[in-house]
Specification:
Helix content: 25-40%
Largest sheet: 4 strands, antiparallel
Strand content: 25-35%
Strand order of the largest sheet: 1-2-6-5
Low-confidence stretches: 10-31
Distance between the termini: 68 Å
Mean pLDDT: 76
Oligomer: single chain
Radius of gyration: 31 Å
Length: 179
């Protein structure tokens, strides 16, 4: 009886732990099937919720603060594949917008607000500094030139000699009566 009570308690705990991420995600994460991003004055939306009907994936609209419905926004047809569909608007002025995606079946894939910020003014410097032509090559360990096979061979020999010396020292230290 004591074991069955323990199993019931642990089962309830596991059920609560499994339901916790869903409860924390909230209703907005489950409803919205779109991802909106901004880069400068370009707003783009990506979804995978739409299916192609009669050669059309659907339409996305960018609604400003004074626009109330889908028909009033800047509409763009979705393009893409069965995996991902996307749309983009360029030359968007700073402000708060709402992106709405309606699939060709008439269902709404999602709605999401986005803020387009004003581009920062470029800083103009009166002095110019010389920059290295290639910089540091991060993938090559920071080296900016290629070493020949002789250099690599000598380096390999040094590493090998160091490993042999380390092994000899550790063997001698473990048994001091040996040389």
């Amino acid at each position: 009886m004591h074991t069955s009570r323990l199993l019931v308690r642990s089962g309830l705990f596991l059920a609560a732990a499994a339901a916790l991420p869903t409860a924390l995600a909230g209703p907005s994460a489950a409803v919205s099937g779109i991802s909106v991003s901004t880069t400068g004055s370009t707003v783009s939306v990506v979804t995978s919720a739409c299916t192609q009907i009669n050669g059309s994936w659907g339409t996305a609209a960018l609604l400003g603060s004074r626009q109330a419905n889908f028909a009033q926004g800047r509409q763009v047809a979705l393009s893409g594949t069965t995996i991902s569909q996307s749309a983009a608007w360029s030359g968007v002025s700073p402000g708060t917008y709402t992106v709405v995606v309606v699939c060709s079946s008439g269902s709404t894939a999602g709605t999401q607000s986005v803020i387009v910020s004003a581009p920062s003014a470029p800083t103009i410097s009166s002095t110019s500094t010389a920059k290295p032509s290639r910089g540091v090559m991060g993938g090559a360990g920071g080296a900016t030139r290629d070493y020949g096979s002789l250099t690599l061979g000598v380096g390999g020999a040094l590493v090998g000699a160091g490993m042999i010396a380390t092994g000899w020292y550790l063997r001698r230290r473990a048994k001091p009566y040996r040389l």
